[in-house]
Amino acid sequence: MFAYILRRLALMVPTILGIMLITFAIVQFAPGGPVERVLAQIQGQGDGSLSRITGGAGDLGGAARANSGGAETNARYRGAQGLDPAFIKKLEQQFGFDKPAPERFLKMIWDYARFDFGKSYFRDVSVLQLIRERLPVSISLGLWMTLISYAISIPLGIRKAVHDGSRFDLWTSGVVIIGYAIPSFLFGIALIILFAGGSFLQLFPLRGLTSENFATLSLWGKVVDYAWHMVLPLTALVLGAFATSTLLTKNSFLDEIRKQYVLTARMKGLSERRVLYGHVFRNAMLIVIAGFPAAFISAFFTGSLLIETIFSLDGLGLLSFTSIVGRDYPVVFATLYIFSLVGLAVNLLSDLIYTWIDPRIDFSARAT
Predict the structure, then answer these.
(1) Does 11 or 89 have the greater pLDDT score?
(2) Which residue range is the domain that position 73 belongs to?
(3) Is residue 106 part of a domain?
(4) Which in 10, 131, 250, 278 has the greatest CB count within 10 A?
(5) Which pTM value belongs to this model?
(6) Taking a C-beta distance cutoff of 8 angstroms, is the pair 118, 330 a contact?
(7) What pLDDT does 18 receive?
């Protein structure tokens, strides 16, 4: 097993390189980069915009507005008419676009290997600080959503399998399917309207993870305040999250219950609880665990984007989206790098959980 873990860790390196290389290549051909964004703001907003964004890289009163006839520069950047090519080159140098693409990529990989993500183009703050500030929101949403959805779906799926075809199985299936069919953001809006002062009740806070007086509360008051803020966004996320795992658990248990070893265990006089949790559970849960990495990554990073927007929760999902729209490439690449690392680590953890649940599985015996 130790050799298998080493091989998986070694495979992470080319996987990360491939992900970053493909994304970097796509970005090179994407229109409207950071330089174009600055030029558009210069043309549309006036002098103050440039000095704020570029940190005083040039004087708009003279060089930025000088009509120097830079035909080549104007051909490269749409909307750059009337701007000094020397000033635009200074912008390229500030953003690092004065170097060839291969050199920029190698430098980025070398920096990222040391977890040096640089500074945001437009926020004048380190990328690591931006991620650190928003990480608690993503951890709160992703972790609690995953734990709650699995805590609901696994017992519910087992009971549905045991009572397959009963009235309980039918009406719970209807609830699960309806919950899965309703988009989480739409359900979130309905919750706000009903319970957050939209049109009816004002029972829950509308935005944020904590109240303004959070620092002055006692320890128990902080726990209650945090939990109260999490009720609506977690309800909106969990409603559709546990549907797939519930049906997967049910079908997996049904498949195992019909096997010969279960009939043999029952003929030996074992209780139904002993049969289910002593024999069936270990085998049936393998397929559920297989879907855990994807569910965790989706919940932790991408699944909460719209929920973060609706409930004004500034997490990693919203940070990544706004950075992509704003062409803040250091933030885009850094979050992608971190997301990829976490995803690969969670997949490795999933394999280790496989062996813990069923020791008969030996990944180290696979051919290299």
Answers:
(1) 11
(2) 2-98
(3) no
(4) 250
(5) 0.71
(6) yes
(7) 92
